[in-house]
Each structure stands twice: as C-alpha cells, then as structure tokens.
Specification:
The chain has 201 residues and is an alpha+beta fold. The chain has 2 domains: 7-54; 60-193, Umud Fragment, subunit A, CATH 2.10.109. The protein has helices at 9-54, 81-84; strands at residues 55-59, 74-78, 92-95, 105-111, 116-120, 123-126, 129-130, 150-151, 156-160, 178-179, 183-192, 198-199. It is elongated.
C-alpha cells in the first residue's frame, strides 16, 4: 500500500523519463549550437582565405582602360590563376610596383617574357612580326620607348592600356616592363556598378 505523499513506481519512472528527455534535449541543443559555431568559424576562415589568397576587389582609377573598363568601376581579381598557369597575351592584369605605394594598376599584357617588342606607325611588332590580332580599337599614336625594339627579360611583361593614346604604361620609362612578381592577378569581371556587371575580355 502506498503511503500519502509517497510516489509510486510509475511516478518515479515517469519523472526519470522526463528528466532523461530534458537532458537529451539540452545535449542536442548544445551539440547543434557548437556545430553552428564551428560552421560559422570555418566560413569566416574560408572567407578570409579566399579574400587574402584567392580573390580581391580593385577599383579602377582613371580612363587608361577605356572602353573595356571605366574609371571608378569595381572589378574582381583572380589571385590564384597565375599560381597554376602562365600569364597569357592580352590578359587584363592587376599589378603593383615593388617600389610603389601599394596602388594596384590595371593594364593589358601585350608582350611576354623573352620576346622583342616594337611599335611603328601604329602597329605592334612582336619578334619582328606585325600583330593583326591586337584588341585595341584605336590607332596607336604614341610609341614611347617601344619606338626602338625592346627585349623583355625572362620574367618581364610589356603592358598597355586599352585607351592606347591616354595610358601611362610600359611605353613610358617611369613604368617600364612589369615583373612577374609584381602581377597580383587576372581581372576577370566587373562587379560594380551592377549595370556594368560582366566578364572582362
């Protein structure tokens, strides 16, 4: 016979089950909480790695890359591609001079390591042959130092702006050839403004 105030076996059993369920829910909550914290932490680390080592946004300054890129546009730079493949002719690149202030400039690659470059009568000659595939839409009026044949070093690139008559690039002595170590990545797309969004060719 159960005395007054004394819990039956079933009451104790139900209480035990209740406590067990509650503890189980608490454990599941904390497992989910820490799993969520871990996912956020991993996402932050991956995001940081992508921005630091993979991709970077750069703002275009000036008209030197018109009509391909315009002043104040924000572009995406792929910083990985040249770690696994070579720089190609006519790639649009972002570079920063070793002796500069960290500012990123954007130009198009015209000459590759070991080649000779000369600009004459508005035409570009590479290794003595006139190039008919240049992507520039206007006639080159300024030859600069490339009026005389230039030989690129083993890790040097000759770059020009698409706005060929309003671009300070490898044709000028204060810019000169760009070293491979100064190239930060390939400009792959326009991000802003949204109306201009698209791939860079």
């Amino acid at each position: 016979m159960r005395r007054r105030g004394q819990k039956s076996y079933y009451d104790k059993h139900n209480l035990s089950r209740y406590v067990s369920k509650r503890n189980s829910k608490i454990k599941r909550f904390f497992r989910s909480f820490w799993r969520w914290i871990l996912l956020v932490f991993v996402a932050v680390i991956v995001g940081y790695a992508i921005v630091t080592f993979g991709f970077q946004t750069v703002t275009v300054v000036g008209p030197s890359m018109n009509p391909t890129l315009a002043d104040s546009q924000v572009v995406l730079v792929n910083k990985i591609v040249y770690k696994v493949s070579d720089v190609k002719r006519y790639d649009v690149i972002a570079y920063s001079r070793v002796d500069g202030d960290g500012y990123y400039d954007i130009k198009r690659v015209v000459g590759l390591p070991g080649e000779t470059i000369r600009i004459s009568n508005g035409d570009i000659y590479i290794n003595g042959e006139r190039r008919s595939d240049v992507p520039f839409t206007m006639t080159i009026q300024i030859s600069g130092v490339a009026e005389d044949e230039i030989t690129l070093g083993d890790s040097e690139y000759f770059v020009m702006g698409d706005n060929v008559n309003n671009s300070e690039d490898s044709r000028y002595t204060n810019v000169g050839n760009i070293a491979k170590t100064e190239i930060k990545g390939k400009v792959v797309s326009i991000l802003l403004p949204r109306s201009d969004k698209g791939k860079v060719k």
